[in-house]
Amino acid sequence: MKKLNPEKLHVEFRQGVTPTKPIIPRRYTLTHSDITAELFLTIGKKYAHDKINKMRDEVLAQWHICNGQLFLYVYVYVGDFGPVMSYIRNMIFRRELPLALEAIIYGDREFFNAHPKLNNAPIWIHFDSSDPRYNRFEYWATPNDYK
């Protein structure tokens, strides 16, 4: 697994969101540059649709409540690109997601310090694909596991 280089992570807080508030709605849009290997994390009440490109290789996340328990819901678009491309995209997302989760948690570390219970909240990943082999909803540990 690649380790996060904090110098390559750029964090932007959008209007209505501070480094510690709110919990809900709090949405993360993580994009990257293939050329510079920089990561761009936008934290806001809404997803940063202006940062999403046509390749749809971003990682989106937000806090949800189910049965009174907070969890981090993460969404990746494996897509509808045919069997070969869906296989490749699924493989890349699975390889890069630990780094993406580390970037989100590190980039929003003041938030996690202010709300220590969230360090043990479950992380659920939705791999969205029209191909049933890749259309999955999986448990991926807790934020503590990505620090």
Automatic annotation (TrEMBL):
Keywords: Transit peptide. InterPro entries: Staygreen. It comes from the Bacteria. Pfam families: Staygreen. Residues 3-146 form the Staygreen protein domain. This is Staygreen protein.
